[in-house]
Amino acid sequence: MPKMKSHRGACKRFKVTASGKIKRERMNGSHNLEKKNRKRSRRLHQSTLLEGTKAKQIKQMIQG
């Protein structure tokens, strides 16, 4: 059988922390920031963690 390949799009969007959790960036934080208030744009630049079944799916996609 051929090797399992990791999903390259998932590898670029998600990172695995040292404790094994999946970290992601928030959406809508890259452009049109002058329309969004300062509190919202600050919050959009913070990363967050995935939870539950989505985290299991992404971890499987990253490891290949």
Judged by helices, strands and strand pairing, the structural class is alpha+beta
Name of the top-level CATH class: Few Secondary Structures
> Can you list the strand order of the major beta sheet?
1-2-3
Query: How would you describe the shape?
Result: elongated
Account of the protein in words:
The protein is α+β, with helices and mostly antiparallel strands. The protein has a single domain, classed as Irregular (Factor Xa Inhibitor), CATH 4.10.410.60. The chain is 39% helix and 12% strand. It has helices spanning 8-13, 38-44, 52-63; strands at residues 14-16, 22-24, 48-49. Strand 1 (14-16) and strand 2 form a beta hairpin. The longest helix is centred in the C-terminal third of the chain and has 12 residues, at 52-63. It is elongated. The mean pLDDT is 94. It comes from Chlorobium chlorochromatii (strain CaD3).
Task: Please tag this protein with its features.
64 residues, alpha+beta, Factor Xa Inhibitor, 3-stranded antiparallel β-sheet, 12% strand, elongated
Short description:
The chain is an alpha+beta fold and 64 residues long. Helices cover 39% and strands 12% of the residues. The protein has a single domain, classed as Factor Xa Inhibitor.
